[in-house]
Amino acid sequence: MAVATSRTIALQGATGHLIDVQVDVSPGMVATILVGRPDAAISEARDRCRMAVSNSGFAWPTTRRTTILLSPADLPKRGTHFDLAIAVAVLAAAVDPRKDAPIPTDDALFLGELTLAGALRPVPGVLPMVLAAASHGIRRVFVPEPQAAEAALVPDVAVFGMRSLAQVVAELRGVEVPEAPPVAAESGSRLLSWRGQERLEEGDLADLVGVGEAVYAAEVAAAGGHHLLLRGPKGSGKTTLAERIPSILPDLDHEEALELTAIHSLAGGPAATTLIRRPPYLAPHHGASQASILGGGSGRARPGAVSRAHSGVLFLDEFPLFSSTVVQGLREPLESGEVTIARGEETATFPARAMVVLAANPCPCGERDSGTGACTCPSVKLRTYQEKLEGPVADRVDILRDVRPPPRGSGPALTAVTTSAEARARVTAARRRQAERYAGASWRLNGHAPGAALRAAWPLDDRSARWVEQHVDDGLLTRRGATRVHRLAWTVADLAGSAEPRRQHVDVALALRLGDPLPAELVERAG
Q1: CA–CA separation, 11 vs 119, rounded Å?
Q2: Helix 479-496 to helix 212-224 angle, to the nearest 10 degrees?
Q3: Closest by CA position to 279, among listed 403, 424, 400
Q4: In angstroms, rounded to a whole number, what is the distance separating the alpha carbons of residues 245 and 242?
């Protein structure tokens, strides 16, 4: 056979494109030509694949011209996972039907990096690549052995976990598969950043006392997927509260878990054996770069923290200390739930529907409004610090809440406590109501619902709508802020078990949006 085709996937962000690796072996000047817009890693695959084929006991076509096309040719390709597909296609094209058995490659996807000895190595992004292949009708997938369980998370796909090129060829020919050394999994150093999530589940809202308004605000944020800004002096409990928000979130459903696991696979995490069912929690340091928060990096664009926290919580403590590029870059994910990274001809889009929690002190030293009178921040420094809490980014945050240190001594405010289990039950029930209301829509939570859709299908009553409009006319709300009040009103109603928002729910929503005091009965319930 002079021409053969194998298939693999090219990733652009979280989107996978099916690639035909077409190989032609024909008379001509002896050379191996690789075309189709490969990057440096794929261009080097010619040498890796040549040695892998030779050291696996097969013959590379050294007396003929070998042309390798990655089709469609206009799409940029990146990554070492093309190795296996290239090697298999070359072997299939070089088969002499008079001497060798054919190597059928129909309805199969090939993913894996090759060593010079012909062994397979794991590659990032296996889950989203297999998902893309399944959407194109591919039903057989060959992957490195440690990533077979991850690929098997996609239903209706037969997964073959292989250790070497020789094993792949034997499986394709239907002959006995030879033994091969085990494939090395990811190094331990890569696993360190993916551990420690269990600690968050140990925290409980019952640990918080005297901050009932903030606890209720966090419960509303969790129920509707709303963004939250916590302001207050140091030691007031902002970080403690943020770390306990994951404990009141329900488990992810299958679709959410599959999407989140695929994002973590893209980010280069360890091979998944099961879907990630618990909402993630990420709290990057304020010195983190724009690429680490929003995504990007050198070479292939990778998802940042805002995407890896998809369907969970992204906590940005000391928010005004983050760089201006990070602060302004948050506009897109806060508004649309996606982040798009554009570089020349490459555009990568990642889901970023995280619940973003921002925390800030009233001043750089954290002593302002603490009652100690110890703040010595100059006015210029204070103004620069507070500017990041105002303007376009702050307008995209749904809930504003000032957190004060609990009062000294004992009293009702320190004894009325809600637990995470109680709050989680209310949040789960509220989310269930939203799922029923938005069945068939492209969004799931009130915080994600488009304003136009809410006004058309789920409007506020006339009296409440006029009250919100009055706040816009008075300059207390922007139009974007009015939409957020509308969303919050529905979430408050869902938590209260109401079929639709009433005036009292709208009043609570306005208080949450503007940072005003909340009704006492809500504070007592929250603790």
Answers
A1: 23
A2: 100
A3: 424
A4: 5
Q: Considering only CA atoms, which of 328, 329, 353 is closest in space to residue 341?
A: 329
Is-contact 6 105, C-beta < 8 A? yes
Tokens of 36: 């189709």
Nearest one of 180, 382, 151 to 261, comparing CA atoms:
151
* Percentage above 90 pLDDT, the chain: 66
pTM higher than the cut 0.85: yes
pLDDT in tens, 112-167: 999 999 999 999 999 999 999 999 999 999 999 999 999 999 999 999 999 999 99
Q: What's the start-to-end Cα distance of the chain, in Å?
A: 75
CA 57 remoteness from chain centre: 42
Token pair listed for 463? 């009296």
**C-alpha separations of 173 from 100, 102, 170, 335, 466 in Å:** 10, 7, 5, 52, 73
pLDDT at 296 over 90: no
Neighbour tally for 31: CB within 10 Å:
10
Can you tell me whether residue 144 is helix, strand or coil? Answer: strand
What pLDDT is stored for residue 191 in this prediction? 37
Tell me the CA distances in angstroms from 131 to 175, 313, 339, one per residue in order: 28, 25, 20
Q: Which two tokens stand for residue 326?
A: 């990070």
Quote the distance between the C-alpha of residue 251 and its chain's center.
16
Of the candidates 470, 457, 456, the one whose C-alpha atom is nearest the C-alpha of residue 506 is 470
Location of structure tokens 């979430």 = 491
Rounded (5°) CA angle 128-130-136: 110
For CA atoms 17, 194, 361, 414, give the dihedral sign: positive
Q: In what helix (H) or strand (E) does residue 323 lie, and over which residues does it extend? A: none
267 pLDDT band, cuts 50/70/90, is confident
Q: Are 282 and 309 in contact (CB under 8 A)?
A: yes
